[in-house]
Design goal:
The chain is mainly alpha-helical. It is built from 53 helices and no strands.
Length: 993
Amino acid sequence: MNSYSQQTIADATDLTAYNNALNLYNTKAYAAAQKTFESVLKKASTGSNLKADASYYDALCAVKLNQPDADSKILSFVEENPNSNKKNTAFFTVANYYFANKKAAYALKWFQKVAADELSKKDQKELNFKMGYCFLVTKNLTLAKARFLPLINDAKYGNDSRYYFGFISYKLEDYGVAESTLKEIADNESYRAEISYYLLDISFKAGKFERCIAVGLELLPTLDKKFTSDVSKIIGESYFNLKKYTEAIPYLKGYKGTKGKWNNTDFYQLGYAYYKQNDYETAINSFNKIIDEKNKVSQNAYYHLAECYINLDKKAAALNAFKSAAEMNFDKNIQEDAALSYAKLSYEEGNPFQPVSEVLQNYLKAYPKSKAYKEINELVVSSFLNQKNYEGALTFLSEKKSEENIALSLEVSFYRGIQLFNKNEYQDALSYFTEGKKSEYLEIKQKSHYWEAETTYRLENYREALAKFILLNSSLKLDRTDDFVFIDYNIGYSHFKLKEYEKAVAAFSKFLQNNALSDPIKYDALIRLGDSYFATTNYRDAITTYKIVSNHLNFGADYAAYQIAMSYGFIDDNEAKIVFLKKVLNEHQVSNLKDDALYQLGNTYSKLKDHKNAHIAYDRLVEKHPKSVFLSRSLLRQGLLYFNDNENMQSLMKYKDVAARFPNSPDALEAVANARNVYIEEGSLEDYVNWIATLKFINVTNSELDNTTFAIAEKKYITSKVGEEIIASLQKYLREFPEGLHQIKANYYLGDVFFKVKEFKKAITYYDFIINGDLSEYTEESLNKLSQIYLKEGNFNEALPLLDRLEQEAYVSENILFAQSNLMKGYYETEAYEPAIVYAKKILQRDKIDTTIENDAKTIIARSSIKTADFNTAEAYYSEIEKTANEELKAEALYYNAYFKNQQKEYEASNKVVQKLIAENATYKYWAVKSYVVMGKNYYGLDDVYQATFVLENVIKNFKEFKDIIQSAQIELDSIKKNEAKTNNSVTPEKQY
């Protein structure tokens, strides 16, 4: 009796529907079948076999249709029908379905629910095989192996199970079992290719390299393409292990990698094969791909990479590779040898990441028993000197006292003194030169003597400096070359500063006997010789000397012409004086002596009674130089000329102009006195009285007391050395005579005293009074000093307008240069790059400028051009700077040289510049480190990945203080690694350091 007997009419209908659905299921019409099964489910009686069977097939349809609730339907069926004989079949059926659809993980889940003992023997074998395969696919190799083992000799599953069992043994590195198992079915067509490869690889792993070569070469032409790459690798590595490097190379190159990527070991083997062939360039191209790992392979690779660089004379590149090898301890011998090479190369080539002296000392600490200990020890001091780290050298020598080191420290003291002198740190430099004089080495001893004297001179101790120069001059045992050429020049200047002009003449004359002098020095000495003749009233010799300079329209020729004119005036040759004054006016477009020349020209014409030309000269001065210090004097002179020519109204107009424009000045008082004479001449005394009543600075009754009080204060200013006493006296004058005749001079004196005692805030008030008042002889110097105060504070907003005025109003050449150079710097600091460039170019157009100021101007142009993206101009000026600069400026110029060469893809040339910077200027760390980022880019441009990443990683690790450089290096490194990860499995992109 079947399970569906004793049915009602309704049950019969449901059964018919169920059978129809079953037919649809068997014909794989799963959607239609499921619809009918669901209908039966709704109608069938709860607990009936019909309902259970419908539920079973509904769940199977859900599986077949990949419906998301399929699993839950199967589980519901089992839960609702725990005693159903279809439960096990359901699990097995679902598992087989997923297996057939290559969903191993899903299949395995259902296979594991099957009760194997309820299956037939046939189905049990099927279950084992399929579970073994699912375990294999899901990488549960041990479990898979256990499932295949019972089936090895099965008629149906034997070959496949034997293959998979052997394959799994191979993967689990159980090579003996794998080899014996796979050999049993080596002739099976289905697996012949795979088994051939696995057996070959097993032989390779067993060290049977000769066999691998023989078998591999035989297999290679017949293999499927998917095995060609791996077999080529086995052949190549077998040759490699047999040290047959020539034969290995083509097969190592034939390897395509895993998913198209090699790893570091692959690159190492090919690189080493080329290395053993002495093909260093090609070897480098493999070794330098090895990055981002630390293991025995990479240590060996970096060591041999370094040797390749050495053989190609690329020492800077070798330095980095030796450093990498020395930082790994997988092979102690390689580590020590690499460390020694790294230390020596650091000395030879410079080191950007550590001071060379530190590298050498670290080696001595790490390997105190090294055979190279003495050699490296001797290099330590030399390294300090090469890097110009004289302070470090002195510290090292003081810690290791010996006769030799004490002697050497005296020499190093001299070099340290020069270093400080070049930074204008004269007071600090002095003690080092004093030490250097103790040296027994004659050149160091006498050079120290010279620079001690020069430093003393720069500190304005002229008498002491003179004594030192004279002593050196009398005791000099070396040739008068280099520094010693200038001894007589400096003696001359010292006498000149001390107003010992006759002695200055002798010294400058002796100096000028040297025919090998450069033009700037020669003409400067001639001018000072002329000035010395002039000061001793030896005007004819002064004229002769000045004419040598004047005939060359540069190097102070305008000053020389002016002095010639003045000299002719003193010997009453006024016609000649006029000629040379006109020469100043007509032959020198840019000269700060033009107002001086016009004033003297007017005076000379006045003396010759040529009032017409005198007025022309004075009028030209008033018109062209409205801020000249000679303006008030010119107006006074014109007033006197008009008075002498009986042109009283014209005369009076000039005097009143002076009184109005320059009140509280001596010239204003003179103008009032002269105007009084005009009024008397005109008989208009009442008009005079009315006029002077309008002048606040005129107080007839107090003028004598005013003069007396100020005379006392001025005497203290001139003679007293006590600042407080001078200040009290001058302030008393200003309190008693707030509108006094001498208030301009008193305010200037007070500002000057406060400036000298470095009470700059107090000085500001007095200098402000001068510069905000009428033009006077103290305006120019007050502008200079007040500018200095604001510049010391870094207050460019206040300093720049003052400097602008100073440039326009000054007649002293040094003040104009001071104004222009600081306007240049101030505009740069306030990011006004265009005017900064304008002033820098003004400075460069001057006839005679100090090398330091010249470099400053070129530097401002170069830096401003970088800021404004005018790279062609920047490159041109940095190129000029590099020729003459020292210290940090030299480092900056070298950096930009390297930078521009990198931009032009001249990578080798750029690296050479970086190496020069590191070797000579590494103490200026910012530029050294910045240049190393450029070097990293250069190496990548040269396809040297190792060097590129090494450099950038070390910048990031070692120089955290330079955040802008670190950021730049990290961006570059990330970009390189992201690119290299496309072809190298060993590279991890975006690793942070």
